Amino acid sequence: MFDKPRNCCPGPFLPETVERRTPGLASTRLVSPANPMTELIDDAVPPLLNAYHRDPQHYHELFDADGGVRAPWRRMLAAIERADPAQMRARADLVERQIRENGVTYNVYADAKGTDRPWVLDLLPQIIGATEWQHLAAGIAQRAALLDAVLADLYGPQALLAEGLLPPELIFGHENFLWPCQRGAPPGGTYLHVYAADLARAPDGTWWVIADRTQAPSGLGYALENRQIISRAYSDLFHDMRVRELSATLRALQTTLQSAAPVAAGETPLVVLLTPGRFNETYFEHVYLARALGVPLVEGYDLTVRADTAYMKTLGGLKRVHAILRRVDDDWCDPLELRGDSTLGVPGLAAAARAGRVLIANALGTGVLESPGLLGFFPKICERLRGEPLALPSVATWWCGEAPVRKEALAGLDRLVLKPASPSRRVEAVFGPSLPRSRLAELRARIEAEPATWVAQELVDLSQAPVWQRGPTQAQIAPRAVSMRVFAIATGKGEYTVMPGALSRIAAKAAARIVSMQRGGGSKDTWVLADGEAMIDAPRRRELRAADIVRRDDFLPSRLIENLFWLGRYSERGDNYTRLLRVVLSRCIDTSAANTAAFEAALAACRRVRLIEGDTRPLRAALIDALTDTSAPYSLAGVLSRLLWSAGQVRGRLSSENWRGLLEVQREAQALDRERLDFGNALELLNRLLMEVSALSGFALDDMTRDDGWRFLMIGRRIERLQFLADVLACALQQAPADSATLEWLLELADSTITYRMRYLSAPQLIPVLDLIVRDPANPHSLHFQIYELGKHLRRVDAAFGSASAAEFEQMRAQLDALDLSTLEPALFGEPGQRDAIAGTATMLADIAAHARHASDSIAFHHFSHVAAASRATLSA
Amino acid sequence: MSARYVIHHETEYRYDSVVSVSHQALHLMPPTLPYQRCHGHRLRIEPAPTHRVEEIDGFGNPLTRLEIDTPHRELLVAAEMDIEIDARTAAFDLDDSPSWEDAVAALAYRGGHLPTAAALDANRYRFESPYVRWNSDIAHFARAQFAAGTPLLRACARLMQRIHREFRFDANATQIATPVAEVLENRHGVCQDFAHLMIACLRSLGLAARYVSGYLLTTPPPGQPRLVGADASHAWASVHCPKHGWIDFDPTNDMRPGDGHITLAWGRDFGDVSPLRGIILGGGAHELDVRVTVVPVAK
Asked: How many Cα neighbours within 13 Å face the side chain of A805?
């Protein structure tokens, strides 16, 4: 028998002592809470800290109990005090600008403002001294190793259950305990490759583990990004303070995945990052990590399992995947053996993992250890499995499945937070202190009805860290509740390396008891200071030999290539439509140009390319729709939203500069607001937009590796340009062939005005204009140039993938070469003859546009058709 | 006393368009049990699978995994088995079982006490699973049969009788994924629904109950009524009793399974032991035919 609750670990303060100990902390050394600043205001405190209210209930990261600045913070605070306000403003601006430009976002599903919300990063880092960190890191490494051992037991012999050290209620009752993953053999024997612990500091200064993240911990990418931004804001100080580097952590992860991946002799391991997609709240980080690790970012559709082996679907066929770093939740990873309704997973993946044919990090089913009910059991399990005490304490936790423990939890219900033991309960955490008496009774009844599904936890009064606040007149430093997510990476044989840094999170309010990004908090970089001379040992990575040299990326998912192709098409279309609208709007504003033949021809061109659809509306309304109607697929706004969508799909392949360019496009696109639109403003907007969209083509030309992805992007661009220009030329020739003003805007569309002027020093005339924009092989906007380039790209594609797409363009080229511009001379056959010749040319151009359309379809069919089919589940009784 | 059967279980899919890849997980191999022996088993699959693996699943059932990479518009899985079953309705009194509260207590975790192997095994089947979730209505429905101190098996029999009495068998009323709460509300369903409901009731009380998939004799012996669910695969519930182990109850027929019930597999619910669970790429809409015959073999 026992007389103490067994699954309850001693928290920072047990409920019966809560009242006694918390206020006690404030009693002696802190300044009077009623007027906290009186003692300090005279000389020691800079004006920045005037409004810093030191609530004595909390631990303060910045100040010790006597009001002195804690050692790790002194240099930082001194530097900030020395800095003049302009310098700090510049730093804050830099941080904000980088977040915007790097497109750091955290998506909140329920956010009405749309999915992408900018990341919130405080200008001041959290700072942890060397000695304190050493203790923390050792505790985290121990805990990670312990949890890995627990997982190996739960998915193997289950001795911990048999010995009564873990309740089956918490394991078998948890939705992430996956029965199909029993008796698996994870390559390298590791279940937990990436572990994160959420830590909070109690009023007495001790760090407590609040929660374990074992499934697919998020935040590592954000922590690295935060570091990149903040270290830049304080480059000198960062160096002087000897802040420890984070880069070794990613290298450790790379090494772990590559060295444990089950490769056959002679194979280079292929590692991929599996994301649920761009609507996931942490998608930014998936892109960031995939790029930082140098691995393809894939979705479930990009992978397939054949004969218990995972493969990636690439343009060149199936490529074996050896390791999957996953950000898809446990039970969503395989619709065959896990959740049948999941479209995020890969059918057969669980079996491939069971067979040890693919490394999944973290192993499937690791999420079971995220149950808050387990916290109280770890101290005993640590003694049993490791023969040593658990170094880091967890927050006081009562699993209500045991009667004596439940009794204790129920007695303190109004001070505790109640959480479901498994996420399958779909219950939100309930905060005792915020419940009225009647609701407490109701909660008590719910717990009594199904006690094993409830867990009670102490609410920690989080420590407070200083945050930078930009005021309207003057900046100041204010306290905010802070918590810290610390990451550990498996290095093999049950060992872990802990990243010397963290994702620190701050609450939206000063005295919060919970910190959540979803509730509108922010984040901080976390500086761990180095001790003594040595900075950090970089773990050794897998040696790359000459045989490993990769020149051609064979690992582009077909879906990605398809999206790159469309990105090419839409960005070119955005460029073309912007130019065409600019032609029309500028002539609308200039009344002398309105209602001319050239203007009518431009409107006809708009109709031909479906920028304007239907003829019944007044011109102004039709143009406003052409600019702003996002529901119309061929309006400028519609094209831009498709452009941004396809860019989002391939974000992992775009350089950060390119992505920034796209964000600029997005900002301009959002300004296309029909309520506030006047044509003068719209024209300016189009000019800016053209700059941004043209920049994208620069990125495509200069910035991307010449791989198959790039090739298909360029194919998309060339086909689009060919089709657009051929369409518009055909239309103009039918409408107003010899009209100089019409030819002028044709030159404008083809960005060839300057070349024409330099060559001819005269008003535009039909034959030289057609030569320049149809036949001239040196003009990158000419039809000839597009066809020539397409032929070149497609011959490469045909050679690699056995398609026959280039032939179509050879035919078009022959057609163009046969075009004799002298037949367009009026003198030759007289005016009727000239009219026929022009009509014939127009038909030929329309024919080229139709061919381009057809070629696009056949390329899509040949190279992307297997992408479209979706998996479905079937069940039979 | 024993009975011997030949069972044919054919599943046929006809797809509207070509299926390019198909993964299937089959629970079509009857286990050997103290009261059941398998004398022969054959599986015919068309088209022939590109990859086939025989395994044991997490609940101890034989599992066959198939992968078909050749494009196809029809899939046929035909299982044939030769089974011998002993009579197992041993004449013990339903009242000769511990009270249901004691049965719950024997399963629940108590710190400092080692669980028995049987209790640990039974705990696999004590909690919510994808097809077995419950609410207070279900708990309330269950509770009426479980007055304080009632012997476990007596209470289970009453629960089975009540489901049989108050629910209408209707092959068209529900789908595979019909939630148990809806079955309770509408008072109709098929054998799977009744098994799921009975399991949900038992688990809501803290008991361990599992889902058994199997077959019934198609044509009854002369003079006996034809049982419901005989021309398809059948399902019933099993409850864990600390004294007698797993005891089966068939709420669809209000009877305790004997030598007319052939056990195919068990799990937490239908999802764990569905005879054919698959994921296909392509295929469009499909038609499904399932044909089951269970014929006694003269000895």
From this structure: 31
Give tens-digit pLDDT for A521-540. Answer: 789 999 999 987 655 444 44
Q: Among all chains, which residue has been given the structure tokens 């030769």?
A: B82
> Are A603 and A725 in the same domain?
yes
Q: Are B122 and B266 in contact (CB under 8 A)?
A: no
Tell me the residue range of the domain where A796 lies.
Answer: 558-868
The verdict on a CB contact (< 8 Å) between B288 and A876 is yes
**A850-864 tens-digit pLDDT:** 988 888 887 877 777
Total length of chain B: 299
Q: Give the CATH number of domain B2-86+274-296.
A: 2.60.40.2250
**What is the nearest CA distance from B215 to chain A, expressed in angstroms?**
11
> Does A875 contact B274 at a Cβ distance shorter than 8 Å?
yes
The pTM (predicted TM-score) of the whole model is 0.79
Token digits of residue A550: 């990769």
A348 contacts on B by Cβ (under 8 Å): 23, 65, 67, 279
Q: What are the CA-CA distances from residue A40 to residues A66, A104, A326, A372, A745 (Å)?
A: 11, 39, 51, 42, 72
Please give the tally of structural domains in chain A.
2
Does B120 sit within 8 Å of A873, measured CB to CB? no
Listed in sequence order, the residues at least 6 apart from A770 whose beta carbon sits closer than 8 Å to its beta carbon are A729, A821, A824, A841
Cβ proximity of A515 and A113 under 8 Å: no
Q: Enter the tokens of residue A572.
A: 């070119």
- Checking A741-746 for CB contacts under 8 A at 24+ apart, the result is A741/A593, A741/A596, A741/A597, A741/A598, A742/A597, A742/A598, A742/A601, A742/A602, A743/A769, A744/A598, A745/A583, A745/A587, A745/A598, A745/A601, A745/A602, A746/A773
Fold (CATH) for B100-257: C8orf32 fold (3.10.620)
Q: What is the DSSP letter of A775?
A: I
Judging contacts by C-beta atoms under 8 Å, the chain A residues touching residue B278 are 336, 873-876
Check B279 against A168: CB less than 8 A apart. Answer: no
Interface ipTM above 0.90? yes
Residue A447 CA to residue A432 CA, distance in Å, equals 13
